[in-house]
Design goal:
The complex is a heterodimer. Chain A is of the alpha/beta class. Chain A contains 9 helices and 10 strands. Helices cover 40% and strands 25% of the residues of chain A. In chain A, strand 9 (214-219) and strand 10 form a beta hairpin. In chain A, helix 3 (101-112) packs across helix 4 (117-130) and helix 3 packs parallel to helix 5 (147-158). Chain A is globular, with a radius of gyration of 19 Å. Chain A starts with 5 loop residues before the first strand and ends with a helix. Chain B is mainly α. Chain B has one domain (88-308). Chain B has helices at residues 20-33, 49-83, 90-101, 105-130, 136-174, 177-184, 188-226, 231-241, 244-270, 276-308. The longest helix of chain B has 39 residues, at 136-174. The chains are: A alpha/beta, B mainly alpha. Chain A binds chain B through residues 51, 54-56, 76, 79-80, 83-84, 86, 88, 90-97, 107-108, 111-112, 157, and chain B through 80, 171-172, 174-177, 179-186.
Chain lengths: 257, 310
């Protein structure tokens, strides 16, 4: 079914909250192996779109197909199988505060595999090491980690099942520039190592420049532009321009003055 | 031009005195100098009384429907858990049983004891007037077993455990933990709600029996000091006149109250949206609604038992 190169296919997706329209006839295709950035101003519905892709929210209209399957039409069993093929890193981490970091990372393995506990712990430690966390961090509770470490731990849990598809929601939000740069690098390394298709929701331009193959800019309820960062920075749509030119303008300003 | 950043003139900021008048007049002067560039905000019309009443009514009705949907979903999750019993988290269940049940023994015992004292004390005066001292046994026995023990246990547990459930689940929602559970393929209703339902469905009836004992003991103490009815005499009559149905009625009601408290607490917790202050609001709402629904259910039970002649 998903023999072709399409991993996610959004068709005419509409989202309304009461009288407020977030998406209106939005189409978007994510191809296998690419890192797709979802950008757009605040309130343009980036995160809502992500929630619709992972089945946490139903769109008011249209179809959301992941791996060729319409996720609104799935039964509980099929949905479970589909969920095992993707990992999600939430904006605030979404780590279970009652479990240690290592238990958090091992949880998907404990749920969906028959590996024994000792092996699961070792695999969890390996995933933590992949994301650049020291082994002793695995024994801490999520509340004891700093913001940057929390993001790394969340990514470690997202890649616990070696997913084919990875969703990252604002991976650099709330981090200082140095930690953000660390996350950029981490995402590149994960991509090189596991090769998953990635959907990255962010408004961090540095991150978009560094890690994405293509970027979809959301606005006016649809995808305004879908292209590489290079091309987008020369795009003529005013909203896209405002979004991408701002920073360069800000950097050019002191030179002109 | 971007309406959110009106171009303000370069304003003078002469050093001013530190008194509130001087500071105020300087800010006001600068504001007046901004002249035409001052942004003006069109205040949206405040909806009228009828409009707001209507909105509130619709929202309340919608919440009621949502609650019914939630109960249905919980039931379905429970049914599918019967097929996969391994999905039950017994550790959470035992933990909640201890926190919500065992740890509540002192406060329930003390409250029920005092309630027994109060009932006996209020009754003592009246009974003495008629020389019917001995009927304090029936008064305390039926009042505690049928009404006060289940009700006071449910109210204390609603404040103690119901609020905790709403706060725990609400925090998990804000932390995106509930979303993470779903994404990992774990049903939050099975993992979070059902262990709490089972724990309280066992704990509350047991707590009610404990409250029965404490309450009757409180009445006994009062009877012996105010009405000269010794413990032995009290207990002998208690055994003779009390019917087992009184105990069963109270315990049966508390079983239903347990479901109300857990379902309302978890429902309100999972309705939390946005930020941390929403957790506090949902917690308050859960306690108020749980106590309200417990009393409504109690009233319905009274009517039903009256019709059935129990």
């Amino acid at each position: 079914m998903d023999g072709d190169n399409t991993v996610i296919d959004l068709q005419q997706v509409g989202t309304r909250f009461g009288s407020h329209t977030v998406h209106d006839g939005l189409d978007l295709v994510v191809k296998r192996g690419e890192v797709l950035g979802l950008a757009g101003g605040s309130g343009s519905g980036k995160s809502v779109l992500l929630r619709e892709m992972i089945g946490l929210q139903r769109p008011s209209a249209g179809r959301v197909c992941v791996f060729g399957q319409d996720i609104q039409a799935l039964g509980a069993e099929e949905a479970l199988l589909l969920r095992q093929r993707w990992g999600v890193m939430f904006q605030r981490g979404g780590l279970f505060s009652a479990l240690t970091v290592r238990q958090n990372v091992g949880l998907p393995l404990r749920e969906h595999t028959n590996l024994d506990d000792a092996l699961i712990d070792e695999i969890a430690e390996y995933k933590l090491a992949l994301t650049g966390l020291p082994p002793e961090a695995g024994l801490k509770l999520p509340g004891e980690l700093s913001g940057g470490m929390l993001k790394r731990a969340a990514l470690a849990r997202a890649i616990a099942l070696d997913p084919e598809l990875l969703f990252l929601d604002e991976p650099t939000s709330g981090l200082d520039p140095a930690s953000s740069a660390g996350v950029d690098e981490l995402i590149q390394r994960t991509q090189a190592l596991l090769g998953p298709t990635m959907v990255v929701v962010t408004h961090d331009l540095d991150l978009l420049w560094r890690v994405t193959d293509r970027v979809a800019v959301l606005g006016e309820g649809r995808v305004l532009a879908l292209d590489t960062m290079d091309n987008l920075s020369r795009h003529e749509h005013p909203i896209v321009q405002a979004y991408f030119i701002d920073r360069r303008g800000a950097q050019a300003a002191p030179a002109a003055a | 031009m971007d309406p959110y950043s009106p171009r303000l003139p370069v304003l003078s900021a002469e050093p001013a005195g530190s008194s509130p008048q001087e500071l105020g007049s300087r800010v006001q002067a600068n504001w007046q100098r901004a002249g035409a560039d001052r942004p003006t905000l069109q205040q949206p019309d405040r909806p009228g009384f009828l409009h707001r009443t209507g909105l509130q009514t619709v929202a309340t009705g919608q919440q009621g429907l949502d609650f019914l949907t939630f109960i249905g979903q919980v039931a379905l999750a429970g049914a599918s858990m019967l097929r996969y019993p391994s999905r039950m988290r017994w550790r959470v269940f035992l933990h909640e049983l201890q926190i919500g049940g065992f740890d509540a023994l002192p406060i329930i015992g003390l409250t029920a004891f005092l309630l027994g004292v109060v009932v006996a004390y209020q009754g003592a005066d009246q009974l003495r007037n008629y020389g019917a001292n001995i009927f304090v046994v029936e008064l305390v026995g039926y009042a505690m077993l049928r009404e006060f023990a289940p009700l006071i246990s449910a109210i204390i547990i609603a404040g103690r455990s119901g609020s905790a459930y709403a706060a725990q689940l609400g925090t998990m929602v804000v932390n995106e933990e509930v979303d993470a559970l779903s994404t990992i393929g774990i049903d939050p209703l099975q993992r979070l709600v059902w262990p709490r339902i089972l724990a309280l469905a066992i704990a509350l009836p047991l707590l009610t029996v404990f409250a029965d004992i404490a309450g009757v003991f409180g009445g006994m103490v009062m009877a012996s000091t105010q009405l000269d009815i010794g413990f032995a005499e009290f207990l002998a009559r208690f055994g003779r006149v009390m019917q087992g149905t009184a105990l069963l009625v109270g315990v049966g009601k508390s079983f239903v109250f347990a479901f109300i408290i857990v379902l309302v607490g978890c429902f309100q917790g999972l309705r939390t949206r946005g930020s941390a202050d929403s957790v506090g609001r949902q917690t308050t709402v859960s306690v108020v609604q749980a106590i309200f629904l417990v009393i409504v259910a109690d009233a319905l039970f009274s009517v039903a038992f009256n019709v059935l002649g129990i």
